[in-house]
Amino acid sequence: MTVKKSKLICLCNGVSEKEILSVLKRGARDLEKVQKFTRASAGCGRCKSEIEAIINNYCSSKAPDLQQNINF
Ligand code: FES
Fold this sequence. Notes:
The mean pLDDT is 89. This protein is mainly alpha-helical. It is built from 3 helices and 2 strands. FE2/S2 (inorganic) cluster is lined by residues 10-12, 40-47.
């Protein structure tokens, strides 16, 4: 059995793409909320553009769901 590992996006805080997508699926829609719930980009900030690209890709593929608010 093979387990697919998720790409590590934030090296400072060890946050994977899978973790970021999980927060997006739960309603986060901007870098601030992703940072709040994962700590991604809370260090050197080098990963910000990659996180924003993940957010933009997710939101563009989920356009009808954008009315949904985060409920943590
Ligand atoms: S790599 Fe994400 S804050 Fe440094």
